[in-house]
Amino acid sequence: MSYADIIEEQKAETREIIEALLEDGSDPDALYTIEHHLSADSFAELEGAAVEAFKMGFEVLEAEEFELEDGSTVICFDAVMESALDADRIDEQVDKLVKLAEKFSIDYDGWGTYFESDEEDAEEEGKLEEDD
């Protein structure tokens, strides 16, 4: 699959992920920790990409070894950025990181985030009302 195809596939997946989060009740107004996953066969292949991702404004998490289903291993790191659940903003992040992956001949393995509940806000509002 070409890197251009990966970008287009990711655009569709981004919209599906956002839709699923919102349908499950995730807070549409929250800031989300978006974790973009990059991997390669060796740390040396990843090192330059990690430095450049940092220069692009991403928080770069420590590289880890990951065992695949076939028993082989890859080295991976996450490039992290806080973002609203805005498809266009996330598309921009994906575009930058897929191009980075292409430049360093590594793999962009998609992105993920965590469910953000607005229950905490509702609880805080309830406490304020009780205090009145």
What is this entry, summarized?
With 132 residues, the protein is α+β, with helices and mostly antiparallel strands. Helix content is 49%, strand content 24%.
Describe this structure in words.
The chain has helices spanning about 5-25, 45-55, 85-105, 120-130, and strands spanning about 30-40, 60, 65, 75-85, 105-110. With about 130 residues, the protein is of the alpha+beta class. Strands 1, 2, 3, 4 and 5 form a five-stranded antiparallel sheet that branches. Helix 2 (about 45-55) packs across helix 3. The protein is globular.
User: At CATH's second level, what is the architecture?
Assistant: 2-Layer Sandwich
Oligomer state of the chains in this structure: single chain
Question: How many helices does DSSP assign?
Answer: 4
Helix percent reads: 40-55%
Count of strand segments: 5
Q: Unreliable segments (pLDDT under 50, ≥5 consecutive)?
A: 122-132
Distance between the termini: 60 Å
Order of helices and strands: HEHEEEHEH
- Main sheet attributes: strand count, strand direction, barrel closure: 5 strands, antiparallel
Question: For the CA atoms, what is the radius of gyration?
Answer: 18 Å
For the record, what is the CATH homologous superfamily label? RraB-like
Pfam families: RraB
Function: Globally modulates RNA abundance by binding to RNase E (Rne) and regulating its endonucleolytic activity. Can modulate Rne action in a substrate-dependent manner by altering the composition of the degradosome.
Family: Belongs to the RraB family.
Protein name: Regulator of ribonuclease activity B
